[in-house]
Each structure stands twice: as C-alpha cells, then as structure tokens.
Amino acid sequence: MITAVVLAVTSAIPATAQAATQLVVLDWNIHGESADMKAIAKVIRDSGANIVTLQEIHRRPDADQVRQLADELGWDITANAHFGAGDNVGPCDDPQPGNAGNAILSSFKIVERVTVPLTNFTTCPVNRSMAGAKLALGGTSTITVFSTHLSPGLSQTSVSRREAQAAKVLNYFGSRSQLILTGDFNAKPTDALSKRFVSAGWVDTGAKYANKPTHGGARIDYIYTKGVTTTSGSVLSTTLSDHSPVIMRMTR
User: Fold this and answer.
1) Is the pTM for the entire model greater than 0.70?
2) How far, in Å, CA of 130 to CA of 181, rounded?
C-alpha cells in the first residue's frame, strides 16, 4: 500500500525542465598529413573536449587521420565522426591520394551530416568547403556544429576569395540559431571579414575568453556561436601544429 501511494504521488509531479548540457568545444588546424595523431589525441583528452573540430585533416589509403583520432579517443568512426572532404589540391598541383578537408568528432552521437562546397576553382588554389553535423545531446536537445577553413593569403585576390567564401557561409545559415561555427578563417578580428560575422549576429567567443594569437602573432582561428552560452575558454599552448587549439566551454 505504501509503495502504491508513493508511485501515485511521484507520477503526479510534473516533469522538470531538461538539465543543461555542458559542451567543451576544441577547434584546431592540425597542419596536414604530418600531424602526430596520438599526441593530438592526448591534448584533446587532457582538455576534456567532447566536441572537436579540425582543419587540414586527411583521409588517405595509408593514413586515415580521422579514423586514427577516433580510435585514440575511443569514439566510433560511424556514430561519432564526420569528415567533410573538399579542401583538396587544385588542378595544377601535383595530385595526391585520398582527400583533405574538415572534420567534426564528438562523444555525442551525430544524427545529421552535411558538406557544403564553398568554391569550385579551375586553377591552382585549394578548394574550400564547410563540414556540418547535428549532435544529439540527450532527450530532445541537439546542437549543430560547423567547421571551415577559408583561403589564406594577403593579396587582394586572396582577400576577395576569402570574403566570397565567408559570404557563402553567412548566406547558408541565414537567420538560423542554436549553432556553433569554428575554423581557420585566415582573418584577424579587425578585418572586414571578421566584422561581418559579428554584424550578422555571431558571437566571437575568443574576443572575450581567448583573445590571444593562434597562428604566429595573429588570432585567425575562431569559435563563433549563435544561441549558445559560453562560460569560459582559452588558447592552448602546444608545438604540435603551426596553429594553437582554441577551447570553449558552453552550456546548451
């Protein structure tokens, strides 16, 4: 009888709001096929990241960096990783086996994937793309994460290419929210390109939490958010790449 009363009372209590999920997002340009994936995995594990976005990552017959990293982290290559191929060498460069691009790996299950081409160069420049993944956080809660790597260079031609790619990124998202966008944008916070993202409603989390250089003396690697609360972050110190990883802690 007592058990029945307890069950009846419990069932009458309305469900409480779903608890917030703690997200730890790490973004890193790992500097291509020469990257030491075991050492990179250790940095990621030590950081506590549960969402990882990478640029200049390769999947080749003799070196599948995405699989190597997933295995090192103990994350399933099918359920917890997305590789967006598309940042391959241009037609006038020496051909290379396999593909290069951007990757998203997470301890959360990926329920949707997309790869968005940003360029279709017919000459030398490396083509550019954007990878996206929707992550299931538990219950009905999800978060969608994108990562990209815009064209480098300081010439006016390079700047124009990069700005055109940024425009495609912004147009793709429109007014959508509940998003995380990361990557190597090859632009400083004071550049017009970076200001366009802020003007479009994206929060540059590094401006508040990690306003330090990520490549040489410049901050060109970003974690942008829309509709997500960031609580802390930093630029990590490592010599494993020519870029430093950026990490942000968020709630969703």
Assistant:
1) yes
2) 10
Query: Which amino acid does the sequence have at 249?
Result: R
Q: Read off the pLDDT of residues 26-72 as tens digits, 9 standing for 90 and up.
A: 999 999 988 999 999 999 999 999 999 999 999 998 899 999 999 99
Helices (DSSP H) in 33-154: which residue ranges? 37-47, 65-73
Nearest to 51 by CA among 250, 193, 244: 250
- Among candidate residues 197, 157, 154, the one with its CA nearest the CA of residue 179: 197
* Helix (H/G/I), strand (E/B), else coil: 151: coil
Using an 8 Å Cβ cutoff, are 100 and 85 in contact?
yes
Residue among 60, 61, 117, 111 at smallest CA distance from 84: 117
**pLDDT of 80-128, one tens digit each?**
999 999 887 766 666 777 899 999 999 999 999 999 999 998 778 899 9
Distance of alpha carbon 31 from alpha carbon 18, whole angstroms: 39
Q: Which amino acid makes up residue 63? A: A
